[in-house]
Specification:
The complex is a heterodimer of chains A (about 120) and B (about 110).
Chain A lengths: L2 E5 L2 E3 L5 E8 L8 E6 L5 E7 L6 E3 L7 E6 L4 E6 L8 E8 L4 E4 L3 E5 L2
Parallel strand pairs in A: 2-11
Antiparallel strand pairs in A: 1-3, 3-8, 4-5, 4-9, 5-6, 7-8, 9-10, 9-11
Chain B lengths: L4 E2 L2 E4 L5 E6 L9 E5 L6 E4 L13 E6 L2 E6 L8 E8 L8 E3 L3 E5 L1
Parallel strand pairs in B: 2-10
Antiparallel strand pairs in B: 1-3, 3-7, 4-5, 4-8, 6-7, 8-9, 8-10
The chains are: A mainly beta (about 120), B mainly beta (about 110).
Chain lengths: ~120, ~110
């Protein structure tokens, strides 16, 4: 059974950093593209970042480019999102999703990041 | 980046058919995927590709596309279909891995 479990969210002050993790089970991470998608409370979905199955290509939304870094540890079958220089507008639930380059067929339950002073 | 536009809200009578649409330039090149999200839950993929349903998704859900418009059709809507629905596709203006989401459509089943 495919499972994705996010962790690492919490309350953080503006300008600080946070690292999210997504532990995958039931499949091998390096066979698939993986995605991070976020959702501000009460708002719609916003794509954040994607890493290709072979790590050959990485893409970021303009809103996080230069501040966020996606990475993967195949030995731990885990996906990460390093978030630096956090802003209040980064406050959201962060979901990891297994791809599909074009879609996410399995999603985690999300982890809440709150950026506030 | 590109945009995908959805109607904010749609309603349907129980057992009737409803179409939820998504418009945007990327849809001229890429298929839309559709996600269902119920309150407090993660999104669930319901349609991907030309018209593919993941395992476990009822066959009352179907997808279609024409020009710059993609549609999700629910034939015989059930009470449990009441949810927010989001379309997404690749973003034709960015990296080939970039995505874009529609703003979401809140479906009410009357």
């Amino acid at each position: 059974e495919v499972q994705l479990v996010e962790s690492g969210g919490g309350l953080v002050r503006p300008g600080r950093s946070l690292r999210l993790s997504c532990a995958a089970s039931g499949f091998t991470l390096d066979d698939y593209a993986m995605h991070w998608v976020r959702q501000a409370p009460g708002k719609g979905l916003e794509w954040v970042s994607t890493i290709s199955w072979n790590r050959d290509t990485i893409a970021y939304a303009d809103s996080v480019k230069g501040r966020f870094t996606i990475s993967r540890d195949d030995a731990k079958n885990s996906l990460y999102l390093q978030m630096n220089s956090l802003r209040p507008e980064d406050t959201a639930f962060y979901y990891c999703a297994k791809g599909g380059t074009d879609y996410g067929d399995y999603w985690g339950q999300g982890t809440l990041v709150t950026v506030s002073s | 980046s590109s945009e995908l536009t959805q109607d904010p809200a749609v309603s349907v009578a129980l057992g009737q058919t409803v179409r939820i649409t998504c418009q945007g330039y990327p849809l001229r090149t890429y298929y839309a995927s559709w996600y269902q999200q119920k309150p407090g839950q993660a999104p669930v993929l319901v349609i991907y590709g030309k018209n593919n349903r993941p395992s476990g998704i009822p066959d009352r859900f179907s997808g279609s596309s024409s020009g710059n418009t993609a549609s999700l059709t629910i034939t015989g809507a059930q009470a449990e279909d009441e949810a927010d629905y989001y379309c997404n596709s690749r973003d034709s203006s960015g990296s080939h891995l970039s995505w874009v989401f529609g703003g979401g459509t809140k479906l009410t089943v009357l």
